[in-house]
Amino acid sequence: MRVKIGLMGLGTVGTGVFKIVNSRGRYIKESTGFYPEIKKVLVKDLHKKRKVDAAGLLTNDPREILEDEEIKVVIEAIGGISPAYEYVKKALLSGKHVITANKELIAKYGEELGSIAAEKGVYLRCEASVGGAIPILHQIDRLKITDEMDFIGGIVNGTTNYILTKMGEGKSYKEALNEAQELGYAEANPDYDVKGFDATFKLGILVKRVFGVSVPVEIIPRKGIEEIKEEDVERAKEWGYEFKLFAWAKKFKNYISAGVEPTLIPENSLFSKVKGVNNAIILRGSSFGEYVFIGRGAGELPTGDAIVADLIDILINYKLGSKSEVTGVNFREESFTDTFYIRLKLKKDNVYGLKEVLKLIKRNWVSIEKSSFGGNSFTAIVKVNGTVEGLKEQLEKVAVLEAVFKVLPEENFKERSEFENLVEVM
User: Fold this and answer.
1) What is the Cα–Cα distance from 289 to 294, expressed in whole angstroms?
2) Cα 73 from Cα 201, distance rounded (Å)
3) What structural domains and CATH numbers belong to the chain?
4) Which of 93, 260, 351, 369 has the smallest number of CB atoms closer than 10 Å to its CB?
5) Residue pLDDT, tens place only, 161-195
6) Confidence of residue 288 (pLDDT cuts 50, 70, 90)
7) Is 187 known to sit in a ligand binding site?
8) Angstrom distance (rounded) from CA 423 to CA 426
């Protein structure tokens, strides 16, 4: 039996889906009993040169998909909010299953669209919205049945990880960004990735899935990688660290904290080994301990593969959802670490300026793990006894604070031999 599919978008993600569905159709039928057939592909420009041969399938009229009763599954690969939101909502209201890789859409409207899907008795699947080829959402659904999870974190944006990898190899930020754009990992306007928006939307989805609570993405603290200077990368490397854009969420007794920010990762950590466009996500539970998932987080085929995995789930009528309701939550801005990297300019351009800083640090019961002083610049890794906000307030009295980044404690997230449980998806 054939199942007709409407594909919306034929960019990087849509092209990956098109290739996989058309090359693996026979194998999908053997596994599910259904042969997937893409009937229509929605594009803006009917005459644009494509990487795949979709002759006879292209349309620029969404009604040819949304109002076609033969089409049972809609795959949204447009991105952004409008018109993707309107198309997805109409598809669900029309009784069509929907698969999307649109993390912004799911982060902002996932609850509403999920309610419509439940009411209409259809599926809304979004595995590809987080982690590229890593089947993280499926794993969360399984693990939360038998365990209580209290932490999720990791590298969830392949573009920034590629840029930071290249900066660690000696390239400037601009050189690394240009290379990422040439390879198709970064858009012409890279703000969505490099300013942390993409990672924040993904984190919002993960928080809902892991903890069963809704945290508006607008209140999650976010810092991008454009704040990292080459001197920070060099100093971190000298001290045995690498920069990663780290997304994390931690559940405490009565509240949740989360954030997306550049973080120094010890070179002996598993996360420091995650290079290029790869992603890595860690889950912590009270029973299973720690699971780490690693896989490609960008590119047409990794993301396309995750979308087709959702399609297969729909075709075999498999559903494993959380029974917990998505609710509001008490959210607080806190830190998962007491260790920080600081870089500042002394107001007094001599050793007396340094003495003022050191005296202030000692007075605040802050221990210095690493430090470097030259000219009127002081850089250090410090362990804070209290809040970093209090330390920043004090330091700004005697210096110009130019950079503050979290440091992943060395005792956490060690090499894979330290993990009792480890799952890799390559």
Assistant:
1) 17
2) 24
3) 2-129 (3.40.50.720), 136-296 (3.30.360.10), 339-407 (3.30.70.1110)
4) 351
5) 999 999 999 999 999 999 999 988 888 889 999 99
6) confident
7) yes
8) 10
Q: Is 183 annotated as a binding residue?
A: no
Amino acid at 425: V
Annotated binding-site residue? 14: yes
Residue 403 pairs with which residues in a beta bridge? Answer: 343
Q: For residue 349, what pLDDT is reported?
A: 64
Using the structure block, give the residue that is written with the tokens 């890593």: 134
CA angle 24, 103, 58 (to 5 degrees): 50
Q: According to the annotation, is 167 in a ligand binding site?
A: no
Amino acid type, 388: V
Under DSSP, is residue 367 helix (H, G, I), strand (E, B) or coil? strand
Q: Tell me if residue 278 falls in helix, strand or coil.
A: strand
Binding residue per annotation — 149?
A: no
Number of residues assigned to the chain: 426
* 27 Cβ contact list (under 8 Å, min separation 6): none
Catalytic site residue 202?
yes
The strands making up 71-76's β-sheet, listed across from edge to edge, are 58-59, 35-42, 2-8, 71-76, 97-100, 124-125
For 321-369, write each residue's pLDDT tens digit.
334 445 566 888 888 899 999 999 987 666 667 888 888 888 777 889 9
- Give the pairing of strands 367-374 and 377-383: antiparallel
Question: Among 108, 195, 202, 244, which one carries the catalytic annotation?
Answer: 202
Tokens of residue 89, six digits = 């909502």
Side-by-side strand order, sheet with 399-407: 289-296, 278-285, 149-155, 241-251, 256-266, 399-407, 339-346, 377-383, 367-374
Task: Give the amino acid at 312.
Answer: I
Distances (CA, A) of 148 to 211, 329, 368, 423: 9, 17, 36, 18
Residue 15, annotated ligand binder? Answer: yes
DSSP 55: T
Give first-to-last CA distance, the chain, whole Å: 32
The span from the CA of 256 to the CA of 248, in Å, is: 11
Q: What is the pLDDT of residue 12?
A: 84
Looking at residue 325, the DSSP 8-state letter turns out to be P
d(CA 224, CA 260): 8
Q: What single-letter amino acid sits at 23?
A: S
